[in-house]
Amino acid sequence: MPTFTYPRLLLAALLPLAAACDHDVTPDLYPTQVTFTQAGLYPEGSQYDNQSRRFLVSSQTAGRIGQVDLDGNYTAFADDASLVSTIGLNLDVPRSRLLAAVSDPGYNTARTSATTKGKLAGLASFNRSTGALLSYVSLGSLRPAYAGHFANDIAVDNLGNAYVTDSYAPLIYKVDTQGTATVFLENAALGAPAGTFGLNGIVYHPDGYLLVAKSDEGALLKVPINNPSGFSKVTATGLNLSGDDGLQLYDNQTLLVACNAQGQVYRLTSADGFGSVSRTGSFATGAVYPTTLPLLGTTSYVLYSHLDALQKMQSPAVSQFALARVQF
Predict the structure, then answer these.
(1) Domain assignment present for 26
(2) What's the count of helices (H) and strands (E) in the chain, helices before strands?
(3) 1 in a domain, yes or no?
(4) What is the annotated signal peptide range for this record (predicted)?
């Protein structure tokens, strides 16, 4: 159970007021940690929906998308046979939809197959309120010549275009609001050695570019929307970002980065439009394999996924997962 003890109805009434607080204030109303029990779920993606006051979480083993209230109660939110494994999530509030990256690392024994294992990249869209499937778009089929595909994370620009990273191929896809999928960026420099993850977390900056984590290098990339081939590596002198995964653009100068193998969340600040960054804070999670970073009001959380246990096929499977408040 979470460490928060106020009655949930009182919390629900006061959260919108707390969300208006300054970024430097961590509202005491927010739970320090929300723990939920779901044996062997292994979520990777997470978002917070302020409208329904719930976290949304994906699952590598079940495929379905779940919802977790602030008392730590888990229930199913959306499911479909096409969801082999759900990875990154993006709650597109202006268009009232939840986007999910769909892949097949082979852990969902009920849905994996020889034709999809390590080769699947898709984007599913769901109604934000009902969880009804709105669309499913195949992405990996745009470039079938690559040996592997793995749709990992999603960013959405202010026009509703979705950008999806592929961790197994040197690709970023683009899906417009009509569901038309194209290859947004393809470059051999974006690849990674076989068996490792390359492109990973991705966020959209309102100044017109994407920030992308490249896990195998511990690098951050800046990709202009209007000139994707002109991408560049963000200078991060003296910083160890190995295993960088989920990203959260906290404000226009501040980026949070979850580095799962390190058990750390770093706060990076830029004074030059993310040409370079410096570290201005860190939060140690411990050995819980932190992945993604949902935002509750103005308070950042990080998902403790324990995906390392899944990768090692640990038995018994992990049964408790958590969303912890990031405190620098």
Answers:
(1) no
(2) 2, 24
(3) no
(4) 1-20
